[in-house]
Amino acid sequence: MYKFSLQKSSIKHLCPNCGKKRFVLYIDVETENFISPEVGRCDREVNCGYHYPPKLFFQDNNQKYVSIVDNTIPVSSFEEEYHYHTSEELNKSLTNFDKNNLIQFLETKINCEKVQKMIFEYKIGTAQNWYNGTVFWQIDVEQKIRGGKIISYDHLGKRTKYINWMHSINLKQNKIEEFKLNQCFFGEHLLQKYEKIIAIVESEKTASIMSMLFNKYLWLATGSLNGLTLKKIQVLKDRKIILYPDLGIDGLNGSPFSIWKTKCDQFKKAGFDIEISNLLEQNGTDYDKENGFDLADYFLRNLDKKIKKIITQKEQIILEMYMKNKNLKTLIDVFELTEANER
Predict the structure, then answer these.
(1) Mean residue pLDDT across the chain
(2) Most CB contacts within 10 A, which of 12, 106, 130, 320?
């Protein structure tokens, strides 16, 4: 197994770059000791992005770096230790939407029937015992309930600093003795229902909103910038995938777009049918980047405008040609010159 890993507890330290108490330190898994107060990752991925991994630390200090340690316990035995929530717990959360700030906000922007359908499909709940926050259940393709992420929103639909997990509350209330979380995509349980192109965004809120505004795609969420992993994406091996990263400033590891572009290239080499959209990069302002706007922010801001369609650069060229020569429409229709499955 790996010799070093990020500390898995909820303890955060002061980030050496931004000074916020959002820094997770790397530990030696054998001794459980910290490597250095500077070796870790800030979870302010967009506004800071500081990440000083063990390998770089050892290189900078001219020390031998060993990433793997011998382990007599098979990896497969660890996989059996993952825990799941019950359907009873999920169903119990599907209520009190009149106190759920996010749902109340969405109903002021989008048709209430669409919101109710989205709630039903994505199994979004309300955490009655935790600020009536919104519960985004992570249900895998086998319909196992892997986790319930709770995010608190204000009356304008903006995320507050309060984030928790259902299993953490259960542990605190002594309802369970342990829980080993194994995350999957938010919305993954819908893969068996729809054969649509897969669109992946960072936040659960964005996936929920885009499923109502642009249902040509099946929208999934990683839960964070670093939540897009090879392990998680394996379930999409035979599907067409489009990535829609958030906007953000260039941190030490690059912008959200550049980070996901690198991953996109890696996944392509691994055999995935995957592309990345530059829609936000082309249309986002400096203000949008500084505030980490996402695709849902862009669409909600333009709800009153007539054009609410995602088109490719190729489709844009065809549209411009068509406006110049309307007889071109016949050629396009007859010879199917457009690629309907593209962005």
Answers:
(1) 84
(2) 106
